[in-house]
Design goal:
221 residues
């Protein structure tokens, strides 16, 4: 970058608008599918950990160990099995979400008042029905709090995948560095931040829609 050159060339953004939209879509898919897969794994695993308390500590330990592995190192491990594909990025990102989502499910279920469980049992709810219709809905705010953290983290980490050719908007970061051209770098960073903030806002909205009783409490207060 030469002295006096603008940080952002707006014409470049206009010329590459279509390409930017495509890469944004790829980035969103790579970032959010691991959160969905992580949630699919974490909900039954969290329920099991809540019911079998002894299981929680080893599960959380394994999840935290996986989270402590640098993302690039984990990508390189999976390259040997899944090649330079999107799966090589999504599988590690899915594993990373477990360290947040499993505790979110366990803590959410633990937050359900015992009288509520007893009342559901007295009404004839079996264990499965009680979990699905009573406990999980009450646990939603705590679970979604974990999902928000996992989603923002996953969207940010996707860019690292560009080092193996699968990084969504991370392509523009590496390309800009190679060309010593800041416009694609700044554009990619801004778009990644917007994706993270928009996703977080949508999850907050989803929580409000899934917990209408919480809105009633706010209005009453």
């Amino acid at each position: 970058m030469s002295d006096g050159e603008p940080l952002v060339r707006w014409q470049w953004i206009g010329d590459h608008a279509g390409e930017l939209v495509d890469y944004t879509g790829v980035h969103l898919r790579l970032g959010l599918l691991p959160v969905l897969f992580g949630l699919i794994i974490s909900v039954p695993l969290g329920i099991l950990c809540h019911r079998r308390g002894w299981l929680y500590a080893p599960v959380l330990t394994v999840a935290n160990i996986l989270y402590s592995i640098p993302s690039l190192a984990l990508f390189m491990i999976f390259v040997n099995y899944t090649g330079l594909t999107e799966r090589t990025v999504m599988i590690p990102l899915t594993l990373y979400t477990l360290s947040v989502l499993v505790p979110g499910v366990v803590d959410g279920l633990a937050s359900v008042p015992e009288p509520v469980r007893q009342a559901a049992t007295a009404l004839g709810f079996g264990p499965t029905r009680r979990i699905v219709q009573v406990e999980l809905p009450i646990a939603v705010p705590v679970v979604i709090a974990g999902v928000r953290v996992a989603a923002v983290s996953s969207i940010s980490l996707v860019a690292v995948g560009q080092l193996i050719g699968q990084g969504g908007l991370g392509y523009y970061i590496t390309r800009g560095l190679q060309l010593d051209f800041p416009t694609p770098i700044v554009t990619a960073i801004v778009l990644i931040m917007l994706l993270a903030l928009t996703t977080d806002a949508l999850l907050v909205l989803a929580q409000r829609l899934l917990t209408p009783w919480s809105r009633s409490k706010v209005v009453a207060s």
